[in-house]
Structures are given as structure tokens and as C-alpha cells.
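User: Modeling request: complex.
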Amino acid sequence: MFRNVAELVERAESQGIKISQVMIEAEMDVSKRTRQEIMDEMYNNLDVMEQAVKRGLTEDMRSHSGLTGGDAKRLQTYMREKPYLSGETLLHAVSMSTAVNEVNAAMGTIVATPTAGACGIVPGTLFAVSGKLKPTREEMVNYLFTAGAIGYCIANNAFISGAAGGCQAEVGSATAMAAAAIVEMAGGTPEQSAQAVAIALKNMLGLVCDPVAGLVEVPCVKRNAMGAAIATVAADMALAGIKSVIPTDEVIQAMYRIGCTMPTALKETAQGGLAATQTGRQIEAKIFGVPLNQ
Amino acid sequence: MKYKSVFDIIGPVMVGPSSSHTAGAARIGRVARSVFGREPKRAEITFYGSFAKTYKGHGSDVATVAGILGFDTYDRRLKDSFAIARERGIEIVLRTSDELTDHPNTSRIRLMDERGSVEVVGISIGGGKIEIIEINGFPLKLSGSAHTLMVLHEDRYGMIAAVSNVLTKYQINIGHMEVSRRERGHQALMVIEVDTVVGEQAVQEIEQIPHILGVSVLLPT
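Assistant: Request completed. Predicted assembly structure:
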């Protein structure tokens, strides 16, 4: 198994294959399962993601707390009715990412990518970019293997949960994973995927995990939305040939060190950041009867 | 390497809202149930750290109970676990502790009935992945994702060789193994993660080895 992004890229480029194929072969080696079994499991994950995107865009989602829901649809309506400013693919990515995270907040079924809190970004960008690139179903599954390969490197060299490393570890990882996968689907090289990871993750460094009332809703849904936007733009930048001065694995190391020194109050404990604002505390008191800090 | 599979990253399929606090909590509960080996009459759950602070918003309590009922992370019944536990006559006691733990997402689960009890401590390390760090006071490291053999034995020489001889005979390959004891010369716990199913016959043979006090098998969760 590859241990970091540099090894992953090296393996792909020396064999002249894509990152997704390196991941599939590594998975076969580690799990002793056949290619077909591994592909089938990922096809199933793809189906669950598609359902979640659909649900979020068509049903009236509303979380138990009432804090989130409906924004994915709101954005789609806006796109139909108004001359929006940013790009079509970009806004679809934002809307679909929001959709999946709204389904998650409403205790619907999703695929953790890499976590439930960040579950919108990988499927949201996948289905948005697919609208433009028209990939086959197999290419869509490959997208998930590429995203998985990057997530694997980040998880083993840093962390992927907000409780361990802040939002940079959670939404940050998902954004980096999506950026790499978009590059591959668009025909970029493994090295360009790695550059997209670095560009995306650099723009997430230091992001804290400060969910209001401890719920995976505020600001998680909107961070998924913007994570999808950053992933899409980072992919375009990498495809344009733009390179990160700091190598990808060093950016991941930086994320790790920042996460280690981040105070506990800013790691999913609902004690700092947005959770500790006046409105955050009021929402908390309304939901639980008392604020969590009392 | 903490994460071994692409499906640790793209997965699990789960009921929201949190992979660490909902799916991970459910998996710890499910391993505890599997270690206990039957449906308990009473479950005592203690949450620490972030689990203690935010469990209500993430449904960690509901998910842990669902796991204790044997439900998987994607089971639609997860939301209704407390009502189902009540129907089945399982008493649930939930506590939070502000005691400091090494990992922010830690839960301690004690399951019991008239025949006995087990106590399992698990941590949820992110993305739905968990580790069991203690069983009945024995410190260990168990992923719960492999076929696992747990052997309680007297703390004396030759026990590891005797057990691995039986595994050799049945051509069962060991992936990871740990031996842990609370006090020298008393009882010890051997936890062996293997690649294939450990059959009834192999288990019986291990049980018959002198100085073995108990054997149980966990299926991958």
C-alpha cells in the first residue's frame, strides 16, 4: 500500500495508470477480494449517494432541530430564475453538496466521505461535474476510488475528523479528495490531482470545528457547500498547470500540526467559535433546555 | 496505518448525522454486544469527552443503544432504538463523565444479565472507524473489523504456543495479536485477529487446552 500522496502519484505515473486504478489494485491486495467484489461495493455506495442527492434536491428536507434544510432547492430555483454570477457546474456542485448534507442532518441515509459531517462534497461535486463531462457509470465509480486514495493518505498521515483535527481535517479532507477526483475525471494527470489536493487543502488550513449546539448542521451544511466550490476551483487551477509551492504531503503535515495545537474548544466540543456566539448559545438553550456550557 | 481500506474513507453507508458520533457510537455498541454474545438485560453507557458534550445533537445515545441491539450503521431502525430496547425489556442507563480520556470520543459500555457481565471501552477515531481499547479491564487494541478470537487464560508460559498450534492445524492465519494482563501471574487475555472464520471445532479444541478459562469469537462488524 502507498503511504503518502507522493508514493501514490509515483506508483500511478511509473505504471502509466490512473490514481483510481492504483487504489483498486491496492485494495485487492490488502483485502484479498476480487476486483468485481470491490467494484460492486463501490457501485452500491454510488447508488446511495445518487439517492441522497436526489432526495436533497426534490424533497423538502428539514432537520429535527429545524436549523437546516431547503437551501439546496433554494439554490436550484435561483439558478433557473436568475442570471447567476458564478458558473453552472460550480453552483450545481454547491447545491448538490448542500443537498446531501441536508439529508444527513435530517438523519437520512448517506455515505460517509470521509465522514458524515463532510458527506456532501464528494458526491455533490461528482454529480455536478458529471453533468458536464458525461462520464460512464464506471468512471463515476473511479471518481470515488481516486477520492478514497487521497482520503486514505490524509487519514493515515493526519486526521479526518473534526473532533481530532478541526474542520480542516473533515471538510478540508473531503474538499481535497474531491479536487483530486475532479482532475482525474477531467483527464488530468496524477500529478495534477496531487496539486489540486495541495491547493484545496491549503485553503482549508486552520478551519475550526465549532458546530452550534453540537449538531452537524450549523455551519456544517454551508461548509460543505463552500468545500464543493473550493474543490471545483482548485481542480480547474491544477488542470491549468498551476502548482503548489509547498508539496502536497507537506501541506497534509501542516494540517496535522495545526490540528494538534488547536484548542479542544474548537474541536467539535461546541465550546468555541460559532457555537459560543450569542445566537449559538440561544439556539442551544432552545434545543436542550440549557446551554451546553452550563 | 490506522486506515486500511478505501471503504474506511468512502463509507460506511449510514444513517446521519455524524460518522464518529453516530456510526462510530453504533459500532462500539455492536462490538460490545458481540463480546457479550447475547442480548443483555441491562446496559450501562458512559460517555466521555466530545461524546459526553454533544451526544444529544448527534444521536450518539440512540446509536449506541442501536448497536447494543445488534443493528448496523445503515439500519433504519437506529432512530427508534430506545423504544425497541424498552419493548425487548432492556434497561438502559446513560451517564456522562468529565474524567479526561486519551481520545475525545470515548464510551464505556457495561452489558449484563443474570449470567454475567462484560465491560468494553471503545473510541471512535473518525469516519465511522472505531477501536476497542479495553475489555473487562484488560487494555488492548481491537478494530472489530476482523474475525477475532478472544482467549481468557491463566498467565503462564506456553499459552500462546498452544493456542497458535491449534490455529496452525486449521490453517487459520493470524493478522494481529495481543496479550494483555492486569497483574502478573493472574489472568491474561489473548486477542487474535485472523483472516478467516474460526470454526466450532477449532474453538472447542482451544477450550480443551489446560489453563484456558474461556474462548469467544467475534465476527467482523
